[in-house]
Amino acid sequence: MNNCAALLAIASLLVSPLASFADHHEQRGLLDKVWTFVPKNGSELQFQKAFAEHAQWRRDNKDPWRWDVYVEVDGPEVGARHARSGDHHWSDFDAYDASAFSAKASAHWNTNVAPHLADIRCTIGKYLPDISNWTEDAPEYRLFQLHRTRVKIGQMQKYIAAVGAIAKVLKDAKWPYHWGFFEPVSGPVPTALLVLPSMKWADMADPKPDLWETMAGAVGEEKSAQMWADLDATIESTEVTIVRHLPDLTVMAAQK
């Protein structure tokens, strides 16, 4: 695993895997790097063991970045591992790639983990705090719905504007739920990402009042319907997967 293959999809501070989405974007960067690792059929156990050993190697060798690891529990690649390192500026990628640690980590990965992989993918996303709703008092969520929306060609800015308009209504109405929103920088562009967290499966049931009822109550049924229509007009398709955070595999950034 080289520059785009060192380790991995979702997190940051000690309080919560997504706590860095809260109110720190003035100081921290908004970019995150996400890896997806799909093991070979029949090699799942070997992959899991090698992955855990590699995570420990990174801790022992003082990885300068934090990585949070997730396993896909519902979706097209059940059992795949996802990892994310967030809060970055562009210059952080240069520094990490040029570090002695990065070269050693790539060598360790290529020798011990890469032989068990069927597929590997790397993407960069940009967190959009103005249309997200993540606060510092967020609990330590364990399950995350990842809504990946493929936006029609040439419609990304209209899509973001439509999402932003809906997010503003929900925030103004004090809808008591968290969400994180990312626009694509690399990867399968144009695919935007909406992250919806839960403590447990039961929390994924539609709340009362639900999203549509909250919107209609806040701006009226006619305007609400038009806002949803504006959003739908920009969307090609949406895929939803669910991942579980694996705190035992989290690699904390080494203290400088």
Characterize the structure shown:
It is a single chain. The chain is of the alpha+beta class and 256 residues long. The chain folds into 2 domains: 19-127 and 243-249, Alpha-Beta Plaits; 129-242, 2-Layer Sandwich (Alpha-Beta Plaits), CATH 3.30.70.100. Helix content is 30%, strand content 27%. It is built from 6 helices and 8 strands, in the order βαββααββαββααβ. Strand 2 and strand 3 (81-88) form a beta hairpin. Helix 1 runs antiparallel to helix 3 and helix 4 (156-172) packs antiparallel against helix 6 (221-232).
Topology:
Layout: E1 31-39, H1 44-60, E2 68-74, E3 81-88, H2 90-98, H3 100-112, E4 117-127, E5 143-151, H4 156-172, E6 180-184, E7 191-198, H5 211-219, H6 221-232, E8 235-245
Shape: elongated
For the biggest β-sheet, the strand order reads 1-3-2-8-5-7-6-4
Q: What is the average of the pLDDT values? A: 88
Helix content: 25-40%
Through-space gap between termini: 25 Å
**Could you name the ranges where pLDDT drops below 50 across 5 or more consecutive residues?**
1-25
CATH topology of the largest domain: Alpha-Beta Plaits
Strand count, sense and closure of the main sheet? 8 strands, antiparallel, barrel
Which CATH-level-2 architecture of the largest domain? 2-Layer Sandwich
CATH class bucket of the largest domain: Alpha Beta
Gyration radius, in Å: 19 Å
In terms of quaternary structure, what is this?
single chain
Class derived from helix and strand content: alpha+beta
H/E element order:
EHEEHHEEHEEHHE
List how many beta strands DSSP finds: 8
Helix count, DSSP H or I runs of 4 or more residues: 6
Number of domains: 2
